[in-house]
Amino acid sequence: MPSLATILRALTLTLTFLAAPCKAVGITSYANMFFEPSDVINSTWFENSQWAQEMAISWTRKLALNGPWSVTNKTVMAKSGDVHDYLSYAVYYWPNCTSVGNTTALTSEEVWDECPYYRRDGVFNPDIHVVEDNEAMANLTDSVYLAAMAYIGTGDSAYSQHINDAMHTFFVNNATRMNPSIDYSQVIRGPGTQGGRRQGVLDMRGLAKAVSGVLVLRELEAPEWTDETDQGFVQWATDMVTWLETDDLALAEKAASNNHGTFYYNQLCALYALLGENDKAISALNEFYNSTFPGQINANGDQPLETARTRPYHYRAYNLAALTTNARIGDYVGLSPSGWNRTTTSGATMFDALKFAMAQNASTTNEDAEINQLNPTIAAVASKFGDPDGAYAAFLKASDPYYPGQPYFALNAGVSDSGIRQGLLRTTYGAVPAQPTKGSSWGYKRHERSRRRL
């Protein structure tokens, strides 16, 4: 039986993969993901994954309490002065005001503009959240894919309406839309122009999640997903692709050899998939596997560029999540040979990287709280290639005693539930906190279409 500490951690930990925390307590924001409409539409596995569906519904409703989101909600602007410009601050940079020469206390704005900032790798500066565009993007993209799952599971039009309204607000409405560029992302504050950095392109990684949800609504021809929103988002995506293909910041991020480069292709190829430009997605993925990927994994499965960081357990899982997303997009667009089986210069595959990562002790680098960051990737690999020795299921159960209740479980057909079922939790683990359920408390009836606020 898992320890009490493990159980409590699995129940209460909200994982965040950089500095984009969800305001809704208890929601896990996976590093990234992409799924095809066929993974959820007319899928017996998805239909039977009731516990995971219920969690997706619960998370959607929690997130929706803070939406719809917009970059225009901020009160601190980028140096452009345009409220529509996405803005975020470099997460590991801290001010050093000893050289400023002030005789009175500095205001926050004076600190941001006058004090030089220096890097403390792995140490988050909490005042980056004075601007919440990063959080808005994370919450938006999480809510879209989760609401798509909820819509499939319930048939309730409130979820498809939520997707339409959230996407229209963030990408289409002229009053609230984000400009299709990331010229002021991961800004290092202090003296100077305070322009964006190539690392800021990473902030858009969640577009793969949003595209997954939109593809589901398109496939179902959901009436709540309007032509205006679809066409507006297509135009935004077209412009964003142009920025990703041509801007100096974007091209520098594309050339990054670590997880930054992997995530660059996540968002670019997801947008290609949205636009129906599968040939371009295939070309871009081949470029990734022939240029960036070959140097990422050693023969023993180590990812040296991620291991070198101050939080190696996290960053190995992080890049693996991006590799999984690229492989799944590749499956959707018809990439051959499959991204799953591509090899690095050393002859290693992402499976070797996963095996190595699973064998590491998170405690060695004080990363116990990060233990289940590997789980969505493990589930995806087990679904795709099986788990003949049960190693994947054993890891999932040990790191998260309730993993069949995670939304990713419903997206990965065939993954073992290790005998963990919602109705057996009390007999398995003893008294447990109440689990989210559909029913009288929310008034849902499966496949009954209705229009109401979430």
From TrEMBL:
InterPro entries documented for this protein: Alginate_lyase_dom (IPR008397), Chondroitin_lyas (IPR008929)
Signal peptide: 1-24
Key word Transit peptide present: no
Domain Alginate lyase: from-to ranges: 70-360
Domain of life: Eukaryota
Keyword Signal included in the entry's annotation: yes
Any Pfam family the entry gives: Alginate_lyase
Alphabetical keyword list: Lyase, Signal
A GO-annotated cellular component: periplasmic space
GO molecular function: lyase activity
Gene3D superfamilies given in the database record: Chondroitin AC/alginate lyase
Name of protein: Alginate lyase-domain-containing protein
Species this chain originates from: Naematelia encephala
